[in-house]
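Hi Q.,

Before the meeting this afternoon, I wanted you to have the iron/sulfur cluster prediction in hand. No need to reply - just skim if you have a minute. The sequence and ligand are here:
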Amino acid sequence: MSGFLFDKIVFGPVHSRRLGVSLGMNLLPTDHKICSFNCIYCECGWTKVSKIDKFTFPPANIVKQFLEKKLIEMRDNNELPEAISFAGNGEPTLHPEFAEIINNTIELRNQYSPKSKVDVLSNATMLHLPNVVNALKKVDMNILKLDAGTEETYRNINCPLTDITLEKIVAGLKQFTSNLIIQTLFVRGELNGKIIDNTTETEVNEWLKYLRDIKPDLVMIYPIARATPAKGLEKVSMNELEIIASKVKKFGFKTEVY
Ligand code: SF4
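Predicted structure with the ligand bound:
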């Protein structure tokens, strides 16, 4: 399957399970996905492009223009969003001007829609860049992915397209001493003859150990919700997710299941 792609830089608003009425920000091309991961469950489909070429991204000044125009339109219609959310056709922090775009977005939010939260959903693969970390520290909801407790399961689910390891991702996440939300998608299935399952007791226990080191403010747990590029994936039941959430709560972390 080709997956669903956003055809605009600023899209929506959409109603998000986690973020409410949310204006979407897509910093990636509108005709293909670019990501440093190739998650088996990605709603955008398989990753065909992972290399960064600055000419393929919308420039920061154009992103700013589109956002300002949309916020003025929404303000005039009395329908300002609860959130301005960076997600889109791949990994937003790959944009070479990500930090500048965050600064511009916060400035426009303050001017036109001061009650809106600025959120970023990221796969945490660019946390070796200080400007990305500093930008993420400024947003209201810094939502970073951690889908596995072991290197093998991380590779089977997120299929990284660079040499970044799970240990490096965790080291990056530990840089946030506050303002950190971990998002984890639980899934099981079989792909290319391999059993994939991040819900086993061993996996969950290893993932919990990482959470204990990372100390997030909140852990968001969710299952697959739409069609996935990999066939044969199973949606984990709410009951199972609640059991995992109760383990997270025992560690003292706030948890939400979607
Ligand atoms: S990190 Fe996000 S955009 Fe990238 S492949 Fe995974 S789900 Fe898709």
